[in-house]
Task: inverse folding
């Protein structure tokens, strides 16, 4: 069922979870209830109740504000403070690996795989992409600043505290340089919205660096990458911390599996610089004393994997990172990349996301990693899609206890669409910059009026 069909009716089934958490200010339990109801989210359109005179006045007011900004008599304050009733910290795994023809000049492999062509327009009006799901904004490029504005605002409005970037090293191998560059292109936006970030290192790239003669050994390749992380990311004030240490991840390790090798690699850090280093679950022994904890990931065992993880680590001194995800539906075989996975986990109209959020929360992991924001190839995306609209983010809003609503998400989507509609209109973009500011300041009512003015008069 696609998102447009969802406009026609509400789901007949309601899924509820009650989450009991300890309030930071009280000893008594607070109950959190999430109800899965499909809401209607129309595309951007004018509010006919607003008169031309009222909208003209808004533009005049914004012109006056822009003049004051030029003189320095007033300034736009950076940062976006979000109040949450639920103190659990939430981070989201992010794939910065997409390219689009309109922004990058070509369609990247994560939209095409080997047999899909986004230039082909299907009967439903969508481009042909390598996924069973379709982003509500269409396929995009990760370095597009409009995309970054949209994604990061959506995260804040849903109560997400930071981003964990999937990262493939510092070498110019395959599309890894593009992934590194895209990751770094997010830094100003993350800082402006008070979002933390960390790196998930894919250690298999160390062997690829040796195979392509970038380094003589896998240890040398990993040392080069870790020095890059230390020199370029650890210096950022918003690099993710936990217990006064930076928090760094490895997806595995799957290639460097000898603890002695990791001792050598970690020699790049002084004792004060040494981060909490988290491996994939059941892999800490490959890192030895350098491992501070493990993180849970999606498994064919689904909740059985959760049981094993929590039974093993919750009472240990390890840092524990639970996982919550909406489902798993790999497109790799259909896209010509081979059968990487012979299993799936149904989305089940939001049940899986609710189930894993509830499970992870009740196990009291140190924090939660959402899997994922935008892995369309594996069907784990939480960002708005044609199939689910804002559904998953609405669930997350209710879980985190933010004051924002799905209507605020719609305002941010409308801002993105206006950015694209008026891409060549510098004056309109100035007003849209002000819309971004108002969303940051939680004044979506003003942002909506200003968006209406732009659509009415430009």
Result:
């Amino acid at each position: 069922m696609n998102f447009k069909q969802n406009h026609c009716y509400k789901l007949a089934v309601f899924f509820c979870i009650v989450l009991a958490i300890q309030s930071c200010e009280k000893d008594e339990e607070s109950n959190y209830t999430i109800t899965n109801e499909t809401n209607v989210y129309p595309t951007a359109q004018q509010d006919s109740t607003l008169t031309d005179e009222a909208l003209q006045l808004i533009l005049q007011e914004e012109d006056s504000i822009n003049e004051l900004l030029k003189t320095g008599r007033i300034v736009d304050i950076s940062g976006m403070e979000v109040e949450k009733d639920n103190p659990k910290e939430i981070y989201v795994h992010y794939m910065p690996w997409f390219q689009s023809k309109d922004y990058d000049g070509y369609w990247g492999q994560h939209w095409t795989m080997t047999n899909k062509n986004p230039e082909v327009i299907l009967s439903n009006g969508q481009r042909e992409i390598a996924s069973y799901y379709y982003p509500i904004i269409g396929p995009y490029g990760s370095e597009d600043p409009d995309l970054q504005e949209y994604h990061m605002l959506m995260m804040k409005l849903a109560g997400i505290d930071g981003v964990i970037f999937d990262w493939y090293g510092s070498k110019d191998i395959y599309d890894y340089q593009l992934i590194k560059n895209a990751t770094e292109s997010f830094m100003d936006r993350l800082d402006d919205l008070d979002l933390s970030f960390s790196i998930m290192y894919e250690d298999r790239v160390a062997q690829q660096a040796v195979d392509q003669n970038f380094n003589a050994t896998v240890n040398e390749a990993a040392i080069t990458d870790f020095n890059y992380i230390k020199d370029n990311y650890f210096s950022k004030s918003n690099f993710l911390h936990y217990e006064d240490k930076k928090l760094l991840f490895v997806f595995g390790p799957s290639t460097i599996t000898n603890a002695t090798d990791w001792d050598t690699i970690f020699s790049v850090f002084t004792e004060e610089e040494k981060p909490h280093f988290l491996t994939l679950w059941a892999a800490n022994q490959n890192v030895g004393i350098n491992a501070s904890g493990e993180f849970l990931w999606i498994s064919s065992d689904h909740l059985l994997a959760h049981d094993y993880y929590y039974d093993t680590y919750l009472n240990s001194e390890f840092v524990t990172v639970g996982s919550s995800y909406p489902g798993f539906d790999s497109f790799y075989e259909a896209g010509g990349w081979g059968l990487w996975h012979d299993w799936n986990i149904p989305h089940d109209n939001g049940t899986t996301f609710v189930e894993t959020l509830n499970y992870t929360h009740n196990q009291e992991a140190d924090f939660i990693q959402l899997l994922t924001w935008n892995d369309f190839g594996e069907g784990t995306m939480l960002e708005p899609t044609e199939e689910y609209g804002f559904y998953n983010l609405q669930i997350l809003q209710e879980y985190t206890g933010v004051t924002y609503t799905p209507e605020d998400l719609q305002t941010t989507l409308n801002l993105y669409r206006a950015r694209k509609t008026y891409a060549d209109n510098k004056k309109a973009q100035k007003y849209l910059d002000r819309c971004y500011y108002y969303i940051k300041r939680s004044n979506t009512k003003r942002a909506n009026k200003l968006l209406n003015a732009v659509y009415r008069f430009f």
In short: The domain at 38-457 is CATH 3.20.20.80 (TIM Barrel). The mean pLDDT is 89.
